[in-house]
Structure formats: C-alpha cells, structure tokens
Design brief:
Blueprint (H helix, E strand, L loop, with lengths): L15 H4 L52 E5 L7 H22 L6 H5 L3 H17 L1 E16 L4 E17 L5 E2 L8 E10 L5 E10 L7
Parallel strand pairs: 1-2
Antiparallel strand pairs: 2-3, 3-4, 3-5, 5-6
Length: about 220
C-alpha cells in the first residue's frame, strides 16, 4: 500500500489573506504522501542559504539537535523580513518541519524534537502523521521547496503563517526494500499550509494549529 499523504487533510476554502486571520482548528497533514513526509535534512538544497531566517535567530540554549538523512534536502525560500519577530516565527516554523521529518526518519511518533516546536492539535496531528509512516515502514527522499510565505505577528504573542510547499521532487522511500516510489507531478504536488503559532515561556514559537490544502491555485508553478 502506498503511504503517500491523502489529497487533503482538511477541506479548506482558503486564500492567503483569509488564512492570515486563521484562528479555527486544524492539524498536520496526517498520512504519508510526498511533501511533509519529506525527511528533514541539512538545508543543503537551499538556493539562498544566507537569507534563511534560521541564520538570523540566535540559538536559545536547550533546543533539540536535528540530525537527518543526507538524501533529503530542502529549499527554504524564506528570506529575511527585516522584522525580528517575523524572522523568529519563520525560523521556528522551519525547525518544526525539520523536527517532524526527523521523527519520521527515526520512526519515532513521540519524538521530543517535534514536540518542542508544536503543541495541542498540531502536535497530535504530527503524531498521527508520523505513525502512518512508521506503520508503512517508510520515509521520504528528494528535495522539498518552501516558498510564498506570509507572516502576521500580533502584539499578544501569537502569529499566523501561510506558505506553499512544492513536493514535486520529494518521494517515498520504503525502509525494508530501499525502493523509492517515484510518482508523476500533478497540481496536487503543490500544497498550501496555514498555521497559528504562539510564543511560549521559553521564547519558542510553537505551532498550535496547522491546516493544509493540496492543489491550491496560489501554490501552482
């Protein structure tokens, strides 16, 4: 059985503007399919590494180390915004993505790294999502691109983040056989995400809710 993520986690009628005011529920894309099933790796695939928000935010001590397979790379096209709060939101959202993928790579649905960067519905959704990979003994390989981000940070310590994901070069890899399931590129290879985050008492922007829409027009090439 192909463990690729289902077409849609939550049916959304979502535009980038509307998503920035998102306050309703949502969760991680719940079962393996190319994309957020991408195993996080060092950002060796980034076309603009010097502009990554992760390089503008100082290390905050007890953050988990994220170490991932070398055969998966990212292109985070999230540049510096010039706003310290927005850059911190983007940094921690990126770390959450990597942490979820590390949990998939290590086949650990309760991995402490992704739980460091997510809480509530988002953490529960990530756990289910990771378990689907574990059940199928699969991970992913290839390059995943993130782009067209939009951040709205509020004075109350919350933020909304919308972004696109290009899964056209990310595929499932089955652990037992080592086989990569290369699938054709379609409009559903492009996914829109909308998340809400909150700055916790450790100064970390944790994702509390996350919804997605596969094939959204905003993300098409």
């Amino acid at each position: 059985m192909n463990p690729r993520r289902p077409t849609l986690l939550a049916a959304l009628t979502l535009t980038a503007t509307a998503a920035l005011t998102l306050s309703a529920c949502g969760s991680d894309d719940d079962s393996p399919a190319k994309g957020e099933d991408k195993i996080a790796g060092a950002d060796t695939g980034s076309s603009t590494p010097s502009a990554s928000p992760s390089e503008t935010v100082p290390d905050q001590g007890e953050r988990p180390e994220i170490a991932l397979p070398a055969d998966v790379t990212y292109k985070f096209e999230w540049g510096k915004t010039g706003d310290a709060v927005k850059d911190a939101v983007l940094h921690d959202a990126e770390q959450r993505i990597r942490a979820v993928d590390m949990a998939i790579a290590e086949q650990d649905p309760l991995h402490k790294a992704y739980r460091f960067y997510s809480e509530g519905e988002a953490a529960a959704g990530s756990e289910k999502y990771i378990r689907d990979f574990v059940d199928h003994k699969a991970r992913t390989t290839g390059v995943t691109r993130y782009y067209d981000e939009s951040v709205n940070a509020k004075d109350d310590g919350t933020a909304a983040l919308v972004y696109c994901e290009d899964q056209s070069k990310s595929f499932n890899k089955f652990l037992k056989t080592g086989k990569t399931d290369v699938t054709p590129v379609t409009k559903d290879s492009y996914v829109l995400y909308a998340s809400t985050l909150r700055k916790n008492d450790k100064g970390v922007w944790v994702t509390e809710r996350l919804v997605s829409e596969r094939g959204n027009a905003k993300c098409q090439p």
